[in-house]
Write a structure and sequence with these properties.
GO terms for molecular function: histone binding; histone H3K79 trimethyltransferase activity. One of its GO terms (cellular component) is nucleosome. It is found in: Nucleus. The protein is built from 22 helices and 13 strands. The strands form 4 sheets. It has a 7-stranded mixed beta sheet, sandwiched between helices. A two-stranded parallel ribbon has the order 1-2. The N terminus is likely disordered. It binds S-adenosylmethionine.
Length: 622
């Protein structure tokens, strides 16, 4: 075996690479010496294999979570006032009639550079302080277990439903004048803001250093009704089952407690403090909350519940709430939550979540649904973060199973990450009429992103491995429940699990209708790539194939034996992906979009004729 594997299935070389990646200094594979006598194809495969760091897989989507990209200090300098950023839309709103308009992100707001946290919520510019257990913090065990699926004070639920539109104005006023107004007990939660103002009374000079969501990030135009308004109008109660965040952190804590201290040394922030359970109010279902454990004493390297809460709160303002209500959050609660997070102030953080809950319960539901009905665009990151929530609940706890494959086999696991998929799906013009198929769909990420982002007519995937198939089922279950919880309209998804795409009638049927085919063939061997080629004979003209390796091998030429082959009818476009696009490396790389044509690709003919000319022996005549 050219590269020895250790018990983790990690090559010694890969371990170096992982170590280097952990140090933020990703190294170049050092096994790229040419092996004498090896064919070009073999050479290419070996080089690719050495670019593949399977250890990344175990914490998937780790590279999506990695925080190695630092915002420049310069960017912080040019940050501008968030108060001003949200003031203008509200002023505009007040001049308007009562009509609710979709959220329009004004140029004014979009100009602003607000520093963003990474998706784990960790920002290395914020000092990780080891906080001793505060006396004021009630240990989690002392708090009564809340009933599953019930909201905090239920008496407010009916009020929630009965609110009239006039209440909105009242709320706008109260959020302007009395930002911390809450029906829940108030702590003396004073948070030092960067501007030195008292929490909740941010002056126009207040400048948040960072947010949980990138408020200036790219937007996704909605091609279909992302929100299922009919469903939301037909029910005010959520009856599904979502895996609460607290379940993840509790499991993590139990695991740490069982781990012998020596193995635990990595988590050197471990201490006896166990955090506090809190409930986060669902924005759409008054009867429902999600349970979280707030605990700033630990270093949540893979999953940070506080950061997730921050995102939920910010997306309430960015996506769910009409502008008049969103203002109440952007002017008060969001800055306070960011301050509390930055200062690792558990008490202030929890108080702010309580205030958010109270605020959300007072928003008339019909104003939210009316607003969602009229939405024309959302931040791209909204779907990515939603998918990440689903992933953390369903895949994270068992991600280690995805590493059980034979090294360098066709079953090596790796994922294409959400930002890359958004880009490539747009390039392939994926839309509501499209049929999307993923050959080797892993845990189903690419399939569900196609369904959610573009509302495809059908999004399908075929996966052979038992563990990946089981995880697909878990992920799909969490997804459907979470879609209901968030009011999202999930278009048809079909998985062919525990079966090969080779000689598979269902796959062939789908392929005949397929508009966009994905084959992550990065480490498929030539035999399997040949099978993919045979399958492509069924693809219709116009079908686009996304592949990580060129389906037409290097030096491919047309000859009498392959003249009718589909490879001759492919128009191949070589593209590059940016760093942090795939799970197995931070580095960028190449991928291919091939379009099936009804006649031979002319560039191939030209290349062939050029090739022939240059090979013709020169004649010397007089
Ligand atoms: C690199 S993973 C890609 C996962 C996902 N498509 C992505 O890109 O994020 C390749 C997957 O193909 C699956 N696979 C390999 N050969 C297969 C076959 N003959 N039939 C179905 N799935 C196969 C592997 O088990 C693995 O889960």
């Amino acid at each position: 075996m050219p590269l020895g594997l250790d018990s983790n299935g990690t090559t010694g070389q890969n371990k170096d690479a992982v170590q280097a990646a952990a140090n933020g200094t990703e190294q170049k594979p050092h096994n790229n010496k040419k092996i004498r006598g090896a064919s070009k194809e073999l050479q290419g495969l070996l080089e690719d294999a050495s670019k593949y760091y399977p250890a990344y897989d175990c914490t998937l989507p780790t590279s999506y979570l990695k925080s190695h990209v630092q915002e420049s200090a310069e960017k912080v300098d040019v940050e501008v006032n968030m108060y001003e950023a949200v003031k203008q839309p509200v002023e505009q709103k007040q001049e308007q009639t009562d009509d609710v308009k979709p959220v329009k992100r004004t140029k004014h707001r979009r100009r602003h550079n607000v520093k963003r946290r990474d998706t784990t919520g960790h920002d290395t510019s914020v000092k990780e302080t080891e906080r001793p257990m505060e006396e004021t913090v009630q240990p989690m065990e002392e708090i009564a277990e809340p009933e599953k699926g019930t909201a905090e004070p239920m008496e407010e639920t009916s009020e929630f439903m009965e609110e009239t539109a006039e209440f909105a104005d009242e709320t706008i006023q109260s959020s302007l004048t009395s930002p911390t107004a809450s029906t829940e007990p108030q702590n003396d939660t004073t948070v030092d803001t960067p501007a030195g103002t008292h929490a909740g009374t941010h002056s126009p000079e207040y400048t948040p250093l960072k947010n949980f969501v990138d408020w200036d990030g790219p937007m996704l135009k909605l091609e279909y009704n992302l929100f299922d308004i009919d469903f939301l109008n037909s029910t005010t109660e959520f009856t599904g089952e979502i895996t609460p965040s607290a379940q993840l952190t509790t499991a993590d804590r139990e695991h740490r407690a069982k781990t012998p201290p020596i193995a635990r040394s990595r988590h050197n922030t471990y201490n006896a403090h166990t955090g506090q359970r809190i409930l986060l109010q669902s924005i759409l279902f008054p009867n429902c909350t999600e349970e979280y454990i707030v605990d700033f004493s630990k270093n949540f390297d893979k999953y940070d519940p506080m950061s997730e809460i921050g995102k939920v709160v910010e997306y309430s303002a960015l996506v769910f709430l009409p502008q008049d209500y969103a203002h109440g959050l952007t002017q008060d609660i969001i800055p306070r939550l960011n301050d509390a997070y930055d200062n690792a102030d558990e008490t202030a953080f929890i108080q702010t979540v309580h205030d958010y809950n109270t605020f959300i319960r007072r928003v008339p539901r019909h104003r939210i649904t009316q607003h969602l009905r009229e939405l024309t665009q959302i931040p791209q990151s909204f779907i990515h973060d939603f998918l990440h929530v689903v992933y953390t609940r369903s895949i994270h706890p068992q991600a280690f199973k995805l590493k059980k494959y034979k090294a360098f086999s066709n079953y090596v696991y790796g994922e294409l990450l959400p930002t890359f998929l958004t880009d490539v799906y747009q390039r392939c013009n994926l839309n509501t009429n499209s049929v999307f198929l993923d050959l080797g769909s892993g845990v189903g990420n690419c399939v569900i992103q196609a369904a959610l982002e573009h509302g495809c007519r059908t999004s399908a995937g075929c996966e052979i491995m038992e563990d990946a198939s089981t995880l697909t089922e878990l992920q799909y279950k969490e997804l459907t429940n979470r879609c209901h919880f968030n009011g999202l309209n999930l278009k048809p998804v079909q998985f062919l699990l525990r079966q090969s795409f080779v000689d598979n009638e269902a796959v062939i049927t789908l392929l005949r209708d397929c508009d966009v085919l994905l084959v992550n063939n990065f480490l498929f061997d030539s035999k399997l790539n040949k099978v993919v080629e045979t399958l492509l004979e069924n693809a219709k003209v116009g079908c686009k194939i996304i592949s990580l390796k060129n389906l037409r091998s290097f030096g491919y030429t047309i000859d009498a034996n392959n003249i009718d082959g589909v490879l001759n009818r492919l128009k191949v476009q070589k593209c590059t992906f940016k760093e942090d696009s795939v799970s197995w490396t931070h580095s960028g790389g190449d991928y291919y979009i091939s379009t099936v044509q009804n006649c031979i690709d002319e560039s191939l003919l030209q290349a062939t004729s050029r090739f022939r000319r240059s090979k013709r022996p020169e004649r010397y005549t007089r």
